[in-house]
């Protein structure tokens, strides 16, 4: 199976190389702004924009004649071209969302980029792009040391199971990263190594992940101590930052410290989540998670920080591709499936459950169970009830959990009925597989 995958490494540039990196990021920003201004001018005059390719041609003429653009040759020409492509895409996405053919949050009209207010980032898609051992080689920038070993990717490229599509260089806080977008030929097993195994995963606010598997084993992943301590330090640093004078040197220093620490906490969290999701995908054929409305939850300010910290969206994304690579699958319960309100023993349903109630107490059968464990158990049970039908029709099926009336279908969540859709059409409730897994032949 051909998979597009990213390999990301932290860089250790020399001071001269760091200057060149900043220069390239500045060039990408300049090209974006230059292109956006050109597009606006043309739109005012002719009612249309330039395409990415047109902008590139225009730029190639102008850069040679305009003496104020004499510096362009200091940076790789690829960087400008890629910035025009990005702008082209941003404009298209804007139009698509206006027409209502684009899913997700509506992007606004592209804006001008300002230094320090936007992400430093640029991309190459042609030229010398290599990695070996502890170095990467990029067009114009030459060979830069990496902080960690690139051996895994280098080996794949050597033996021909990976092909580099593009390379993006970006900065987070004080650190530069290089990310190789690679097409990888992955061996995906026909079946998972442990067929029939299933696990329900509850994404929590206090505990990172709570899982219950098909043998009833409960695992709680609280996140490393360092991460929790890191969060406390984050609080302290952001308080210190907000107490400094606007525009002062101390504020800049405090902002740098805060950004560095933010990056550190993010790295720790990502690392924990990667380890946890790799473990789950290796151990279980079917992984069931909730479809949390992350954007909606982020709008709730009390939950916002905690939710963002746990990286719910990231967990879902990681599980989605990692289960696919191992011949397993990820099931995403419907957004309205009340996993935390159903009793996992008798199927009785509570009308309401506040977030502060950490123990689930069933009024019908008297079950008292940790709230997260109860929710994870309900999710796991969905795997058993949904598995057969999922395979039978290959489409989206929403069976109700055992002992529950099938959930009512919400407007806008009509299951997508594939060619063999009769079974799917009858079924009513809770399933959605992530798309790229569905495309995987089973
Ligand atoms: Zn009960």
UniProtKB/TrEMBL annotation:
One GO BP annotation of this record: DNA recombination
Biased-composition ranges, Basic and acidic residues, are: 433-442
Q: Which residues form the Transposase putative helix-turn-helix domain?
A: 1-47
From the UniProt entry, list the residue stretches annotated as the region Disordered.
Answer: 240-260, 390-442
Domain Probable transposase IS891/IS1136/IS1341 stretches: 182-299
Query: Which GO MF term does the entry hold, naming one?
Result: DNA binding
User: Which keywords label this protein?
Assistant: DNA recombination, DNA-binding, Metal-binding, Transposition, Zinc
Composition bias, Low complexity: 419-429
List where this protein forms a coiled coil. Answer: none
Q: Where does the Cas12f1-like TNB domain lie?
A: 312-379
Family membership noted in the UniProt record: In the C-terminal section; belongs to the transposase 35 family.
Protein name as catalogued: Transposase
| Natural source organism | Actinomadura physcomitrii
């Amino acid at each position: 199976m051909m998979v597009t995958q990213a390999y990301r490494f932290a860089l250790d540039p020399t001071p001269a190389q760091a200057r060149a990196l900043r220069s390239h990021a500045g060039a990408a920003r300049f090209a974006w702004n230059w292109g956006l201004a050109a597009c606006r001018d043309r739109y005012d005059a002719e009612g249309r924009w330039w395409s990415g390719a047109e902008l590139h041609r225009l730029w190639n003429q102008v850069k040679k004649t305009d003496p104020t653009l004499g510096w362009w040759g200091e940076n790789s020409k690829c960087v400008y071209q890629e910035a025009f492509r990005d702008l082209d895409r941003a404009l298209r996405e804007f139009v698509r969302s206006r027409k209502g053919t684009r899913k997700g949050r509506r992007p606004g009209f592209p804006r001008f980029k300002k230094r320090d207010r936007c992400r430093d980032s640029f991309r190459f898609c042609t030229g010398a792009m290599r990695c070996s051992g502890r170095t990467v080689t990029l067009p114009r920038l030459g060979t830069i040391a990496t902080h960690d070993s690139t051996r895994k990717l280098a080996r794949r490229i050597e033996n021909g199971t990976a092909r580099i599509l593009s390379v993006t260089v970006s900065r987070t806080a004080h650190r530069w990263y290089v990310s190789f977008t690679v097409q990888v030929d992955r061996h995906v097993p026909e079946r998972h190594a442990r067929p029939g195994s299933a696990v329900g995963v509850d994404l929590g606010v206090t505990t990172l992940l709570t899982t219950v598997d098909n043998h009833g084993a409960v695992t709680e992943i609280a996140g490393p101590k360092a991460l929790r301590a890191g969060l406390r330090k984050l609080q302290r640093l952001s308080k210190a930052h907000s107490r400094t004078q606007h525009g002062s040197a101390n504020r800049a220093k405090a902002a740098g410290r805060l950004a560095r620490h933010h990056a550190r906490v993010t790295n720790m969290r990502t690392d924990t989540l990667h380890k946890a999701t790799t473990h789950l995908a290796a151990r279980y054929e079917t992984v069931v998670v909730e479809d949390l409305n992350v954007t909606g939850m982020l709008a709730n300010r009390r939950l916002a920080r905690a939710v963002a910290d746990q990286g719910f969206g990231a967990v879902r994304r990681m599980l989605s591709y990692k289960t696919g690579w191992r011949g397993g699958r990820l099931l995403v319960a419907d957004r309205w499936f009340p996993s935390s309100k159903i009793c996992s023993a008798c199927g009785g349903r509570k009308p309401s459950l506040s977030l502060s109630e950490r123990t689930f107490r069933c009024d019908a059968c008297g079950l008292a169970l940790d709230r997260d464990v109860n929710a994870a158990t309900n999710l796991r049970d969905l795997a058993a009830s949904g598995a057969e039908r999922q395979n039978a029709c290959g489409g989206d099926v929403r069976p109700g959990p055992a002992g529950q009336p099938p959930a009512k279908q919400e407007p806008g969540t009509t299951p997508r009925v594939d060619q063999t859709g009769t079974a799917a059409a009858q079924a009513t409730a809770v399933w959605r597989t992530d798309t790229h897994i569905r495309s995987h032949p089973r």
